[in-house]
Protein backbone atom coordinates (compact mmCIF):
# COMPACT_ATOMS: atom_id res chain seq x y z
CA UNK A 1 0.00 0.00 0.00
CA UNK A 2 1.22 3.50 -0.82
CA UNK A 3 2.28 5.75 2.03
CA UNK A 4 -0.60 7.57 3.69
CA UNK A 5 -1.12 11.04 2.29
CA UNK A 6 -0.97 13.89 4.77
CA UNK A 7 -4.40 15.46 5.20
CA UNK A 8 -5.02 19.15 5.90
CA UNK A 9 -6.38 19.66 9.41
CA UNK A 10 -8.42 22.41 11.02
CA UNK A 11 -8.09 22.11 14.80
CA UNK A 12 -9.90 23.56 17.81
CA UNK A 13 -7.54 23.38 20.77
CA UNK A 14 -8.72 22.74 24.32
CA UNK A 15 -8.72 25.68 26.70
CA UNK A 16 -6.89 23.61 29.33
CA UNK A 17 -4.80 20.45 29.46
CA UNK A 18 -5.32 18.23 26.41
CA UNK A 19 -6.45 14.77 27.59
CA UNK A 20 -8.85 13.64 24.83
CA UNK A 21 -9.53 14.17 21.11
CA UNK A 22 -12.40 14.14 18.60
CA UNK A 23 -11.92 13.57 14.87
CA UNK A 24 -14.97 15.06 13.09
CA UNK A 25 -15.32 14.25 9.36
CA UNK A 26 -17.18 16.47 6.89
CA UNK A 27 -19.70 15.40 4.25
CA UNK A 28 -19.01 15.03 0.53
CA UNK A 29 -17.80 18.18 -1.21
CA UNK A 30 -17.08 20.04 2.02
CA UNK A 31 -13.82 20.71 3.88
CA UNK A 32 -12.71 20.47 7.49
CA UNK A 33 -12.73 24.25 7.73
CA UNK A 34 -16.21 24.35 6.19
CA UNK A 35 -17.57 21.88 8.72
CA UNK A 36 -15.90 23.77 11.56
CA UNK A 37 -17.58 27.00 10.42
CA UNK A 38 -20.97 25.26 10.06
CA UNK A 39 -20.74 23.73 13.54
CA UNK A 40 -19.79 27.14 14.96
CA UNK A 41 -22.86 28.69 13.30
CA UNK A 42 -25.15 26.02 14.75
CA UNK A 43 -23.67 25.85 18.25
CA UNK A 44 -21.13 28.64 18.84
CA UNK A 45 -19.54 27.05 21.88
CA UNK A 46 -18.65 23.50 20.74
CA UNK A 47 -15.31 23.56 22.51
CA UNK A 48 -14.02 21.81 25.61
CA UNK A 49 -11.43 22.55 28.28
CA UNK A 50 -9.78 19.12 27.84
CA UNK A 51 -10.72 17.93 24.34
CA UNK A 52 -9.10 18.86 21.03
CA UNK A 53 -11.37 18.71 17.98
CA UNK A 54 -9.77 17.86 14.64
CA UNK A 55 -11.55 18.59 11.36
CA UNK A 56 -9.61 16.91 8.52
CA UNK A 57 -10.25 17.68 4.84
CA UNK A 58 -10.69 14.82 2.39
CA UNK A 59 -8.42 15.04 -0.66
CA UNK A 60 -9.95 15.72 -4.06
CA UNK A 61 -10.73 12.62 -6.10
CA UNK A 62 -12.99 11.75 -9.04
CA UNK A 63 -16.47 11.14 -7.64
CA UNK A 64 -18.79 8.87 -9.60
CA UNK A 65 -22.14 10.44 -8.47
CA UNK A 66 -20.81 13.72 -9.98
CA UNK A 67 -19.91 11.96 -13.26
CA UNK A 68 -16.26 11.73 -12.30
CA UNK A 69 -15.77 15.40 -11.40
CA UNK A 70 -13.22 16.11 -8.68
CA UNK A 71 -14.65 16.52 -5.19
CA UNK A 72 -13.44 16.42 -1.58
CA UNK A 73 -14.81 13.01 -0.65
CA UNK A 74 -13.62 10.30 1.74
CA UNK A 75 -14.36 7.52 -0.74
CA UNK A 76 -16.04 6.85 -4.06
CA UNK A 77 -19.41 5.16 -4.59
CA UNK A 78 -21.58 4.26 -7.54
CA UNK A 79 -24.51 6.34 -6.26
CA UNK A 80 -25.97 7.73 -3.04
CA UNK A 81 -27.96 4.62 -2.19
CA UNK A 82 -27.93 1.71 0.23
CA UNK A 83 -28.53 -0.67 -2.67
CA UNK A 84 -25.07 -0.89 -4.22
CA UNK A 85 -21.71 -2.44 -3.28
CA UNK A 86 -19.23 -0.44 -1.21
CA UNK A 87 -16.14 0.92 -2.95
CA UNK A 88 -13.80 -0.76 -0.49
CA UNK A 89 -10.54 0.17 -2.22
CA UNK A 90 -11.17 3.88 -1.66
CA UNK A 91 -12.65 3.35 1.83
CA UNK A 92 -9.69 1.29 3.00
CA UNK A 93 -7.12 3.63 1.46
CA UNK A 94 -8.68 6.59 3.26
CA UNK A 95 -8.87 4.58 6.49
CA UNK A 96 -5.06 4.34 6.35
CA UNK A 97 -4.77 8.11 5.90
CA UNK A 98 -7.12 8.85 8.78
CA UNK A 99 -5.44 6.18 10.85
CA UNK A 100 -2.26 8.24 10.71
CA UNK A 101 -4.14 11.15 12.36
CA UNK A 102 -5.32 8.82 15.11
CA UNK A 103 -1.75 7.58 15.55
CA UNK A 104 -0.48 11.15 15.78
CA UNK A 105 -2.86 11.72 18.70
CA UNK A 106 -1.69 8.51 20.36
CA UNK A 107 1.93 9.58 19.86
CA UNK A 108 1.04 12.88 21.54
CA UNK A 109 -0.08 10.98 24.64
CA UNK A 110 -3.83 10.54 23.98
CA UNK A 111 -4.80 6.86 24.29
CA UNK A 112 -7.37 5.49 21.87
CA UNK A 113 -9.95 5.06 24.61
CA UNK A 114 -9.83 8.87 24.92
CA UNK A 115 -10.56 9.44 21.21
CA UNK A 116 -14.00 9.75 19.59
CA UNK A 117 -14.62 9.47 15.84
CA UNK A 118 -17.60 11.11 14.17
CA UNK A 119 -18.91 12.68 11.03
CA UNK A 120 -21.73 14.20 9.03
CA UNK A 121 -23.25 12.34 6.04
CA UNK A 122 -20.41 10.61 4.14
CA UNK A 123 -18.13 11.57 7.04
CA UNK A 124 -20.33 9.58 9.40
CA UNK A 125 -20.12 6.51 7.15
CA UNK A 126 -16.32 6.87 7.05
CA UNK A 127 -16.22 7.20 10.84
CA UNK A 128 -18.28 4.01 11.18
CA UNK A 129 -15.85 2.09 8.98
CA UNK A 130 -12.95 3.42 11.05
CA UNK A 131 -14.57 2.54 14.38
CA UNK A 132 -16.12 -0.81 13.45
CA UNK A 133 -13.29 -2.23 11.34
CA UNK A 134 -9.99 -0.48 12.02
CA UNK A 135 -10.06 1.23 15.43
CA UNK A 136 -12.68 -0.54 17.60
CA UNK A 137 -10.82 0.51 20.76
CA UNK A 138 -11.85 4.19 20.47
CA UNK A 139 -14.19 5.72 23.07
CA UNK A 140 -17.14 5.97 20.71
CA UNK A 141 -18.43 7.01 17.29
CA UNK A 142 -21.18 9.40 16.20
CA UNK A 143 -22.85 9.55 12.79
CA UNK A 144 -25.10 12.45 11.77
CA UNK A 145 -27.40 12.14 8.72
CA UNK A 146 -25.41 9.06 7.69
CA UNK A 147 -25.89 5.50 6.52
CA UNK A 148 -24.06 2.30 5.64
CA UNK A 149 -24.81 0.27 2.51
CA UNK A 150 -26.75 -2.98 2.77
CA UNK A 151 -24.32 -5.81 3.35
CA UNK A 152 -21.61 -3.41 4.58
CA UNK A 153 -18.43 -5.07 5.78
CA UNK A 154 -18.77 -2.86 8.88
CA UNK A 155 -21.78 -4.95 9.99
CA UNK A 156 -19.76 -8.12 9.49
CA UNK A 157 -16.80 -6.71 11.45
CA UNK A 158 -18.99 -5.84 14.45
CA UNK A 159 -20.70 -9.23 14.36
CA UNK A 160 -17.34 -11.02 14.29
CA UNK A 161 -15.91 -8.99 17.18
CA UNK A 162 -19.01 -9.60 19.26
CA UNK A 163 -18.91 -13.32 18.46
CA UNK A 164 -15.35 -13.37 19.79
CA UNK A 165 -16.47 -11.29 22.82
CA UNK A 166 -14.23 -8.42 21.81
CA UNK A 167 -15.26 -4.84 22.55
CA UNK A 168 -16.87 -2.54 20.02
CA UNK A 169 -17.39 1.21 20.48
CA UNK A 170 -20.74 2.75 21.36
CA UNK A 171 -22.63 4.60 18.58
CA UNK A 172 -24.72 7.78 18.69
CA UNK A 173 -26.68 8.29 15.48
CA UNK A 174 -28.87 11.31 14.66
CA UNK A 175 -31.03 11.97 11.59
CA UNK A 176 -33.65 14.43 10.36
CA UNK A 177 -37.02 12.97 9.37
CA UNK A 178 -37.25 15.27 6.31
CA UNK A 179 -33.78 14.41 4.92
CA UNK A 180 -34.34 13.93 1.18
CA UNK A 181 -30.70 13.15 0.29
CA UNK A 182 -29.86 10.50 2.90
CA UNK A 183 -33.24 9.11 3.87
CA UNK A 184 -34.17 8.88 7.54
CA UNK A 185 -35.04 5.21 7.02
CA UNK A 186 -31.49 4.50 5.83
CA UNK A 187 -30.15 5.86 9.11
CA UNK A 188 -32.65 3.83 11.13
CA UNK A 189 -31.78 0.68 9.19
CA UNK A 190 -28.06 1.27 9.80
CA UNK A 191 -28.61 1.49 13.56
CA UNK A 192 -30.88 -1.58 13.53
CA UNK A 193 -28.32 -3.71 11.68
CA UNK A 194 -25.45 -2.57 13.91
CA UNK A 195 -27.56 -3.36 17.00
CA UNK A 196 -28.39 -6.76 15.55
CA UNK A 197 -24.66 -7.35 15.08
CA UNK A 198 -24.09 -6.57 18.76
CA UNK A 199 -23.18 -2.86 18.89
CA UNK A 200 -24.65 -0.58 21.55
CA UNK A 201 -26.45 2.16 19.59
CA UNK A 202 -28.66 5.15 20.31
CA UNK A 203 -30.71 6.69 17.49
CA UNK A 204 -32.32 10.15 17.67
CA UNK A 205 -34.78 11.53 15.11
CA UNK A 206 -35.28 15.25 14.50
CA UNK A 207 -38.75 15.99 13.07
CA UNK A 208 -38.73 18.28 10.03
CA UNK A 209 -34.92 18.45 9.80
CA UNK A 210 -33.47 18.15 6.30
CA UNK A 211 -29.88 17.11 5.42
CA UNK A 212 -28.36 19.51 7.90
CA UNK A 213 -27.25 20.06 11.49
CA UNK A 214 -29.40 21.66 14.18
CA UNK A 215 -28.69 23.07 17.63
CA UNK A 216 -30.61 20.44 19.69
CA UNK A 217 -28.73 17.70 17.83
CA UNK A 218 -25.34 19.29 18.45
CA UNK A 219 -26.18 19.91 22.11
CA UNK A 220 -26.99 16.20 22.41
CA UNK A 221 -23.70 15.33 20.70
CA UNK A 222 -21.86 17.59 23.16
CA UNK A 223 -23.41 15.88 26.18
CA UNK A 224 -22.74 12.43 24.72
CA UNK A 225 -19.10 13.37 24.07
CA UNK A 226 -18.69 14.49 27.68
CA UNK A 227 -20.25 11.24 28.91
CA UNK A 228 -17.67 9.28 26.89
CA UNK A 229 -14.73 11.65 27.47
CA UNK A 230 -15.08 13.21 30.91
CA UNK A 231 -12.25 15.36 32.23
CA UNK A 232 -9.33 13.19 33.27
CA UNK A 233 -8.94 12.83 37.02
CA UNK A 234 -5.84 14.54 38.36
Automatic annotation (TrEMBL):
Keywords: Hydrolase. This is palmitoyl-protein hydrolase. Pfam families: Abhydrolase_2. Its EC number is 3.1.2.22. It comes from the Eukaryota. It comes from Neogobius melanostomus (round goby). Coiled coil: none annotated. GO terms for cellular component: cytoplasm. Gene3D superfamilies: alpha/beta hydrolase. InterPro entries: AB_hydrolase_fold, LYPA1-2/EST-like, PLipase/COase/thioEstase.
Amino acid sequence: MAAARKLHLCAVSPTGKHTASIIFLHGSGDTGQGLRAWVRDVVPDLAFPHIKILYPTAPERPYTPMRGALSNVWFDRLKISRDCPEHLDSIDSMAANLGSIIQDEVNAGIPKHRIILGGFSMGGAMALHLACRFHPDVAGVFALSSFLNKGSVAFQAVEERCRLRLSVPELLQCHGTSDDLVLHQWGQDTTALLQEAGMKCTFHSYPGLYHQLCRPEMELVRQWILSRLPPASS
